[in-house]
Each structure stands twice: as C-alpha cells, then as structure tokens.
C-alpha cells in the first residue's frame, strides 16, 4: 500500500479524504458522548415559542461537536506536512479538507418537541453527525468526479489540467497522476492485482447501537444489538 499512497492518484485522494472525514466524525461523536475530557457537546439554541412565559428560557440540545472534530483533525493531519506551496502538499491539504467538509456540511438537525400533548411549544434541537456510510457515499461521488490538476505558473496553487473544466470547489477531490492498472499485479506501483480473484460470502455478527432513547436533558442511551452482516472475501 505504501507505494500506491506515495502517488497522487484519485484513489489516494479518496483515502486521504476519508481518513480526515473519519477523524472528524469520530471526534465529533466522542465529544457529545462525554468520552473526551477536552470537549463537550456542541450547543445550539432552539426556536422559541411566541408565548411570553417561555421566551426567557433558552433550551439547548446536546449535539455532536463537529467544530472540535474538524479542528483537531486538521491539526493532527496537517501538522506533519512540510511548509511551502509545492503542488503535492496543496493537493493533499485540499483532499483532507474535502473529507472534513463531507462531515461538517452534512450535519443533521434533530429536534424533540416539548409541551402539552407534544404540542411543540418548546423544541430542544441539536446537530447530529450523518451516518458514516453516508459520508463515504458522498466521497465516493466526489471520487467518481475527481478533477486532475496541474500546478499554476507561480507554483502556489493548482488548476484543472483541461482548461474547459471548472475549478474544483473545496468539497471536490483532486489528483495529479493517472491511476495504475489495479487489475494487473505490478510491483513498481505496489498493486497486487485483482484479476482472477474469487470471492465468497461470509456472515459475521456485528454489534451496534440500537433502540436509542433521548433522556431529558440531554443524554442519549442505547442498547447493544447483534446483527449479521454479509461481507465478501477473496479466496
């Protein structure tokens, strides 16, 4: 894998993006679950009723702290990068950012109603991280539409190799090199090759949180359920 990751292909860009996304996602959820001492919930004010009796109250929900996750993911991954504006470092930073934004810009707003007969006189709201499978699907779409770039003349930025293609946004993935042929084994690129492989179904039990409940105020408790998941392995 090391030889492949040293190249700036679209596959490498995806790996870097989903690594940054995974760190952002995990840290954001850990904050709201109280498993980190350096952070807490991300608090947000909920809409208030027109009733003057309740307007002086500010009800808040306990959300996933995506700001903390974003900040720490960036600090950890980019503190090791060399300073300067070489195009390889710029591409790496860009794909890290795309991964973090795949989490931050897709947070879900969740609300719980309070009041007589669930009249929603008051709402408690919080931000919840999207399921990581959803984050992966977002980045897979970005991988499919990744843009090949080249360094600009001043060497301080990059631009699409084909001038008619629009400049990549912060959420797009970019790459510098064409991908090797992963079907064929190639020691020079580190590809083990996939041609001729056979796969078989394997059913494995996976434990996951289920039947989650929101307890006033503001804690989420869950049961642990076991679910069989089908995966495919190569013979």
TrEMBL record:
GO terms for biological process: canonical Wnt signaling pathway; cell fate commitment; neuron differentiation. It comes from the Eukaryota. One of its GO terms (cellular component) is extracellular space. One of its GO terms (molecular function) is cytokine activity. It holds the Pfam family wnt. Keywords: Developmental protein, Disulfide bond, Extracellular matrix, Glycoprotein, Lipoprotein, Secreted, Wnt signaling pathway. InterPro entries: Wnt, Wnt_C. It is found in: Secreted, Extracellular space, Extracellular matrix. Transmembrane segments: none annotated. Belongs to the Wnt family. Ligand for members of the frizzled family of seven transmembrane receptors. This is Protein Wnt.
